[in-house]
Amino acid sequence: MPQTGVLAPQGMLVHQFGAFAAALQYDQLPSEAVHRAKQIVLDTLGTTLGGYRAGFGRQVVDFTARTAPGAEATMIADGRRVSVEGAAFANATMAKMLGMDDSHRAYGHVAAEVVPAALATVEATRGDGRDLIVAMAAAYEVFGRVGRQVRRTQLERGYDIKGMVGALACAVAAGRGLGLGAEEIAHALALSTALAGGLETYVHDPANSHTKDLISGFAARNGVFAALLARAGFRGPRGALEGEGGFGRAFGEGIDPGEALADLGRAFEIAVAGFKPHAGCRHVHQGVDAAREVRRQIEVDPARVTQIEVATYRHAIDAPFRTTLTPESPSAAGYSLPTAVAVGLVFGSFYPEDIARFTDPRVQALLPRMHLSIDPAIQAAYPERNGCVVRVTLDDGRTVEGRVEYAKGEPENMLTDEEFEAKFRRTVADLLPASQTDDLIARVWNLDRIGEVESLVRLTATPT
């Protein structure tokens, strides 16, 4: 992969990331990174459109129209223009609502924050598709290289990484989208460390809390705000990431600059992003996939099932909300591995409408027969692999096994472009006319050849 050749060996991390982001050019991105960026944009536009029609999507766009007036950038689906911060906030919040945004097994969810921040700023500056791709690629570098070093500690402490590291990545996306120079992007990144925030308390109260989705909006808005501050001349501390009292020590066990910069400009984080073909928590998807493998072998009749063994990695079953047999709502059901396996066995998919049927008698009949355990081999390979084994024992003594080494959507088990399109059409459903949906998909696949991204955003507006 080509190198950027812009980094000096000295200097603090914010300045090195700033120099990299400012100097990165489209032609320096390998083809796999460019194609993955297109997949990310298509996937995120689909989840955002789906979020608009679900949950509190319309509520958030109405709120944003009132509180963030302006004409700089567009709210997806709604079509109204608001301030650049407002568009980033509304679109990022909607992008998270279905729980089907992208994922990375090493450092969490990225696209729901980064794409809206990049899209709003590139639209505001009348940038083109290549500008959008480069802004996203630069942001993914920061998310991945910082996120890998703090994620474990942040999980243990109850922080939400998409609000914490996501704000940092969005500052870089917005800085590049606004066309800032190296020093300005460095200061945007430094300022964003004071704006990062988010707690995972919502996992214990998913039915009554909006914060799971709002945190993505906060990250996108705060990252854009940091970039606007930097453009206006405001400055952040040089050691904001790895320094004494910096982000790494405050919210992790520290950041190793050498590790953060290793292969920067040669190995691109965006190229190894993963995706969620199912709704709900990513840590139940391997169970859904293994259940689908069972369904490919037999037609599952709950009346004939005597036992279901589910073996996976520790983190998938390390909390009560992940193992409950009695979730109180569809939101809670989306975090429950046994519920996900049962729904997968009965319906063969785990979209929001499937999760909503978790009270179906066939699903409920399977849950008491569920036994969860840690598979030593799967645990040893985690997080590089996120596998699962589902063994269904029938009343005639037969056992049918479904096994996956990687959940569907991981780089080693990636969706095809046709599967991305199918997911997009299903999440958008009849929100847009069929011809508009076709045109939107075609433009995303040609993102590197379109002029102003505003032309792409306009295609997301629902008919009036």
Structural class: alpha+beta
Low-confidence stretches: 1-10
Series of H and E elements: HHHEEHHHHHHHHHEHHHHHEHEEHHH
What percent strand? 5-15%
What Rg, in angstroms, do the CA atoms define?
22 Å
Helical content, roughly? 40-55%
The CATH superfamily of the largest domain turns out to be 2-methylcitrate dehydratase PrpD
Average pLDDT: 95
Strands ordered across the widest β-sheet:
4-3-5-6
Counting DSSP H or I runs of 4 or more residues, the number of helices is: 21
Number of domains: 2
Strand elements, count: 6
Query: What would the CATH topology of the largest domain be?
Result: 2-methylcitrate dehydratase PrpD
For the record, what CATH class of the largest domain applies? Mainly Alpha
CATH architecture title of the largest domain: Orthogonal Bundle
Q: Note the gap between the termini.
A: 46 Å
Major pleated sheet: 4 strands, mixed
What form results from the Cα inertia axes?
Answer: globular
Task: Give a summary of the structure in a few sentences.
The protein has 464 residues and is of the alpha+beta class. It is 51% helix and 6% strand.
General description of the model:
The protein has helices at residues 13-23, 31-53, 57-67, 84-97, 111-124, 129-157, 161-177, 182-192, 211-231, 247-250, 257-261, 285-297, 320-323, 330-333, 337-347, 352-355, 361-366, 376-381, 417-428, 434-445, 454-458, and strands spanning 73-74, 81-82, 305-312, 370-374, 388-394, 399-404. It has two domains: 13-272, 2-methylcitrate dehydratase PrpD (Orthogonal Bundle); 282-408, 2-methylcitrate dehydratase PrpD (60s Ribosomal Protein L30, Chain: A), CATH 3.30.1330. The protein is built from 21 helices and six strands. Helix 1 packs across helix 8 (182-192), helix 2 crosses helix 4 and helix 5 (111-124) runs antiparallel to helix 6. It starts with 12 loop residues before the first helix and ends in a 6-residue tail after the last helix.
